[in-house]
């Protein structure tokens, strides 16, 4: 039995270690990223080994405040949570909260939704760990992200086939980050190099994202090789994408049956090898033709005759499988569905970091929204404090008022019956009005005779003892009423004290929240415009988080509205009781002391 218990304990400990494994405890956060190659994702059938995946981060799937401003603390680890993966950062913009990171995963299985790798972040002491040259396999001859903002486009691969000539305009909005724009006369040229070659038995694959502004464009998107000997080209002819292979003046081509949609991005690929030339448009084979193998070598020319933009140009000295091209299209486009981002986990415990839908919105909050929410939070705390204290104050006053009225009603004509009951009815507003009225009565009963008050200056004034049988004139009763009415006004001021703060919360809270929402939406759209990323995943969290400011304003106004109406009703009732009591008190005084 003890042996069985020990084995069970060992199993639980091992299971716990597996679930809560943490690659390196120097990193405070991690996030799982699942590859979806089923019908809802990239819809690939064959395994891709290895694969370069574009990880797109935005306010909807990543907390930029938890990472270093330049993203240098990012690390990617395989699903075993042990093997570091090669990656390189194309863009990391913490200000606009947008990033693109390319990660080389060892394998992507077809028709699967279970393969996972990890992204670690949150280490202030970490040095940059990206490795652009190590992120590509050997056949990859060229990879131009075209996210450069100055100079000539640079190749991210280890071959360093940087542009030798470039007249294209950099910094345009691209599919992932930046792109190069062309006006029909501009182009990018990469000079020939010994390493810029594809053997005849290997084949070649070229891909590019292109957006043409002309409906019937005629342009060469990408050409590789010597036009006089052998050249492989991706072209647009009368608006239709075409893959063309030219061999010593003889050409074969595969042309798509339909034209591209002007103004929209399209992913084009040409695959040459195994006796075929295949044109792939948006991940699907559009056309193919028979083509004999031949070696390719020479310059690479991009954008000849194009009016529009080009992004993510690649060239490989191998015929990539169609699933690999479909994987690239599904993982890079605006409607990318290849990656499924998990919740953030914190502090090496493996426990979820609370990034539910609300957590995603909180992560996406901008500084101005935080300011509005904090102000609304302070207003809510103040409003609740006023409502609680005022409710207690009114409840005690109402209770003592009822007790006082019960005793006062039994006293009949004896107005002095409660002269010594100050401690018993200390919270009663009616008792305080009673004391004011009786103090005025007593003061007038103790006044000296009129002859003494009208005597000469310096004459000795001797006060007469209170006259229980004294009678008051109408003017005296009016004066007493005025004094008691003044006490009533002061009691009303005390009852309504701080109620104005509730009206401010009711009317100001929603407007303050609306201001935060408007500013947040403006910032979100400005960031999207600056980044050129129109992915709904980048826009929606920012707008949704901006609406949290309005929610905060309503969260202040709604409780304050209910509390104000409740308190106002109670105050109105007490005020009515005080007015009735003043009339009753003055009636008794008049009955007792009037002529």
Task: Walk me through what this model shows.
- The chain has 595 residues and is an alpha+beta fold.
- The chain is rod-shaped, with a radius of gyration of 41 Å.
- The chain has helices at 2-19, 322-332, 357-363, 367-411, 429-445, 450-453, 474-496, 499-531, 536-593, and strands at residues 29-35, 51-58, 75-77, 87-93, 98-105, 116-121, 140-144, 165-166, 169-173, 178-183, 188-190, 197-198, 204-212, 219-226, 230-237, 240-247, 250-255, 266-273, 276-281, 284-290, 296-297, 300-304, 307-316, 339-346.
- Strand 16 and strand 17 form a beta hairpin.
- The strands form five sheets. Strands 7, 9, 10, 13, 18, 19, 20 and 23 form an eight-stranded antiparallel sheet that branches. Strands 8-11-22-14-15-16-17 form a seven-stranded antiparallel sheet, with no helix packed on it.
- The longest helix is centred in the last third of the chain and has 58 residues, at 536-593.
- Residues 1-20, 349-355 and 449-466 have low confidence and may be disordered.
- 42% of the residues are buried.
- It has three domains: 27-137 and 322-355, no CATH class; 140-317, Jelly Rolls (Sandwich), CATH 2.60.120; 364-447 and 469-595, no CATH class.
- The N and C termini lie far apart (105 Å).
- The protein contains nine helices and 24 strands.
